[in-house]
Specification:
The complex is a heterodimer of chains A (about 200) and B (about 290). With about 200 residues, chain A is of the alpha+beta class. Chain A has 4 helices and 13 strands. Chain A is about 20% helix and about 35% strand. In chain A, the strands form 4 sheets. A 4-stranded antiparallel sheet of chain A has the order 1-2-4-3, covered by helices on one side. In chain A, strands 5-13-6-7 form a 4-stranded mixed sheet. In chain A, strand 1 and strand 2 form a beta hairpin. In chain A, helix 3 crosses helix 4. Chain A is elongated, with a radius of gyration of 18 Å. In chain B, the strands form 4 sheets. Chain B has a 7-stranded mixed beta barrel. Chain B has a 6-stranded antiparallel sheet with strand order 7-6-9-4-1-11, with no helix packed on it. Chain B has a 5-stranded antiparallel sheet with strand order 2-3-10-5-8, with helices on one face. The longest helix of chain B is centred in the first third of the chain and has 10 residues. Chain B is elongated. Classes of the chains: A alpha+beta (about 200), B mainly beta (about 290). Chains A and B meet through strand 1, strand 3 and strand 4 of A and strand 15 and strand 19 of B.
Chain lengths: ~200, ~290
């Protein structure tokens, strides 16, 4: 674990895997809730957690090295279920990359349990991990100018659901009616870092 | 509708509602947003007797014009510009009483980019996640102003400041940005690092609320490949594949995959927000890890 200073009041804590980043994130949230850590933003990402708005970043950087980071705590709540019609335009391409028949994509995807590793790109857009590494897929060579809201998509090791229509280069495998982001709702984001998710296949209508 | 409102007569090139933004939601992919020249926004609020968190209007180069439905006290600051009420010149950088139905015109910036209009009571559009700021990256908050739009105003909190004029910084001949190196300076060659701190850049016309883009020598990378996405801070100097540094401003993305070579001191970002395209830019190292 390495803490890199970012300007005067932030630290980027780097770890060696996505799992370690999720464990570190959970530990940082626990310490903040316990009043041991005062920080404005805790932003997990692929291999790092950013602590932004720290009053004594140098002191924390020195202390961090000695921290014991327990593994991600066992879940207490049921996973969030997202019903999906596996009807995306890139199903055949994904099936080809995976080397499986087209119908298998839905079964494989829906069998996995996912975890929101981090958010970014747009409010409420989560980068979900959970598929075995052999199912990594490349982004599309040419991004689409408009991906519809509710598209369930794959890129690299991640699954994501587009909270609203936006340009995007991910492989579209399905569609959901679930509202990922609604700023009039509390909480606005359905998926926050650390949340567990299952995709539930529904008939394509 | 209440008579405490502003009608937008001329929206200008890009005029947005801004307050201190919505920090604390970066982990959900929500940019901080907020006034780019925060000291100027705070000053116009003070001049009209508002608390610092009241929402103001931020114009871009061309100003804007509004008509209050009832008499209000306003103040214009940030980029200096002509101010008029029903065609008669009014002071910039000081409280001005605008009668109901009169036309308040904020002219084009004489220098700088962004002028701020503070109105007693603040612009009272519906907040989103605790902020009324327009976020141009993610589309949160009210849309940019359009001609004919009506903006509700809040109740005045206190009397306007008793000043004739408030001092504000003059135009920088050169934008000097003090930076702390890192966190990803090791992704660049020694030559690239030297280039950053010794060569002159210019503000690119492609700059916006998301980032101050620069034109100048490309910074050479020591490490190829892709950086896994990581959290980004305000003032981060991100270097995209073309090698020209981009300084992240208030609407910056919360995560990014290009290396951040250095971070600009927060105190220098107001000047960055007022630097017109073509302004020379220098990066000066003040801290090293």
């Amino acid at each position: 674990m390495k803490a890199l200073p970012v300007g005067d009041d932030a630290l980027l804590v780097e770890v060696s895997s996505g799992d370690e980043a999720q464990a570190l994130h959970a530990e940082l949230l626990r310490r903040r809730a316990a009043g041991e850590l005062t920080v404005r933003e805790i932003v997990p990402a692929a291999r790092t957690v950013l602590l932004d708005g720290l009053s004594e970043s140098a002191r924390l950087a020195a202390r961090l090295a000695a921290w014991e980071i327990p593994p991600v705590p066992a879940p207490v709540e049921e996973p969030i279920e997202i019903p999906v019609r596996y009807d995306g335009p890139d199903l055949a391409d994904v099936a080809a990359v995976w080397g499986v028949p087209r119908d298998e994509v839905a079964r494989i995807h829906a069998a996995a349990e996912f975890r929101v590793a981090f958010c970014g790109f747009a409010p409420g857009f989560g980068y979900l991990t959970g598929l075995p590494e052999r199912y990594d897929v490349p982004r599309r060579a040419t991004p689409r100018t408009a991906v519809p809201a509710g598209s369930v998509a794959l890129a690299g090791p991640y699954t994501g659901v587009y909270p609203r229509s936006s340009p995007g280069g991910w492989q579209l495998i399905g569609t959901t009616d679930t509202v990922l982001w609604d700023h009039a709702r509390v909480p606005a984001a359905l998926l926050a870092p650390g949340a567990r998710v299952r995709f539930v296949p529904v008939a394509c209508g | 509708m209440t008579d405490r409102a502003l009608s937008v007569v001329r929206a200008g090139a890009l005029t947005t509602v801004q307050d201190r933004g919505r920090p604390g939601h970066a982990h959900l992919g929500v940019p901080r947003s907020g006034a780019l020249d925060a000291p100027a926004a705070a000053l116009v609020n003070r001049l009209v007797g508002n608390p610092p968190e009241a929402a103001v209007l931020e114009t871009t180069l061309g100003g804007c014009a509004v008509r209050p439905r009832s008499t209000v006290v306003v103040a214009v600051g940030g980029a200096p510009c002509p101010v008029s009420v029903d065609g008669r010149p009014a002071p910039w950088g000081a409280p001005v009483r605008v009668p109901g139905g009169a036309l308040l015109d904020i002219g084009p910036a004489r220098w700088g980019v962004r002028s701020y209009l503070g109105v007693a009571g603040g612009v009272a559009v519906e907040p989103v996640l605790g902020s009324r700021s327009t976020d141009l990256l993610s589309g949160l908050g009210p849309p940019p102003l359009t001609d004919g739009a009506v903006l509700p105003l809040g109740r005045p909190a206190g009397p306007p400041a008793r000043v004739d004029a408030a001092a504000q910084p003059g135009p920088p001949a050169e934008l000097v940005l003090r930076v702390t190196l890192g966190p990803r300076d090791d992704w660049f060659t020694a030559d690239g690092m030297r280039t950053l701190v010794t060569r002159a850049y210019r503000v690119s016309a492609a700059s916006n609320r998301i980032g101050l883009r620069t034109e100048g020598p490309a910074l050479t990378r020591a490490l190829r490949g892709e950086l896994p996405s990581e959290g980004m801070v305000l003032g981060a100097v991100q270097v995209p594949p073309d090698g020209r540094p981009v300084v992240f401003l208030a609407d910056h993305p919360t995560t990014g995959g290009y290396p951040v070579i250095a971070v600009v001191r927060a105190a220098d970002l107001a000047a960055a927000a007022q630097a017109t395209p073509g302004t020379p830019v220098r990066f000066r190292v003040v801290g090293r890890r």
